[in-house]
Write the structure tokens for this entry.
Amino acid sequence: MAVAKRIDGKAKAAELAESITRDTAALLDEYGIKPGLAVIIIGEDPASQVYVRNKKRTAEACGFNSVQHTLAEDVSQADVLQLIDELNNDGAIHGILVQLPLPDHLDEQSITQAVAPSKDVDGFHFVNIGKLTAGHTADAFVPCTPAGCMLMIEDELGRDLSGKNAVIIGRSNIVGKPMAALLLQVNATVTITHSRTKDLPKVVAGADIIIAAVGRPNMVKADWVKPGAVIIDVGINRVEKIIDGEMKMGLTGDVDFDDVSTVAGAVTPVPGGVGPMTITMLMANTLRSARLAAGLEG
Ligand code: GUN
């Protein structure tokens, strides 16, 4: 018997996008500024192409100037850096995102660090990571996935997580580490687990909040979960599953949704949970960047 609330990330993202669209229209109306988002995609990775298409569609729906640069799989490092430099110096562009993963011959670190911190709407630049880690979120860009997760956690548990145990599964720079910094900032007691963690189910069993971001389909089961826990599933795994009575390729999270729903308090579904929130947070960061550039915030 299912007891958990299904957290509707899609509906929340749509609500936020509406308010971003209104604020974008007001910015254009009052100041003549249109937020500009440039997305660079390199190569043919099919998942990346879907993500980038969704980002472009949402940016346009919000009223942004949305620019996509599609570069060949064998583009040189120098050419990528030159494009980033041009975008860094383009006054109409307020956010720059280089879709990951990159082809193997490119150096991810020097590319992500070439984006000006003031346009780093992904929050991957060391300046933004440093500010987030030090608790200076007022003028940092926070990575979009953790930022979206925090809004959903806040809806369930409020803004102060004093006394709550949060367990993060996965220590990536994109999700696990920034998630820890955000949870700490609101007083949660945070544990980051990873592939070398001993007795993972036992560690997770102590969690009031579980963030699963490992990329292992359906890994988190009901017997790992404390009754009433809030579970945020960041996993996006492509697996064969039964859809409308037929075996098809579909998306599944890192959490066994039906199983944990018998125990948890609230769970995000995949799809329809973290994914749409991530895209909307990218729009929020880009609008904020445009406002900061105009001296309207900060
Ligand atoms: N690939 C998967 N997630 C992300 C993300 O949040 N930002 C970028 N740039 N690439 C990604």
In short: The radius of gyration is 19 Å. The chain has a mean pLDDT of 97. The chain has two domains: 30-116, 144-274.
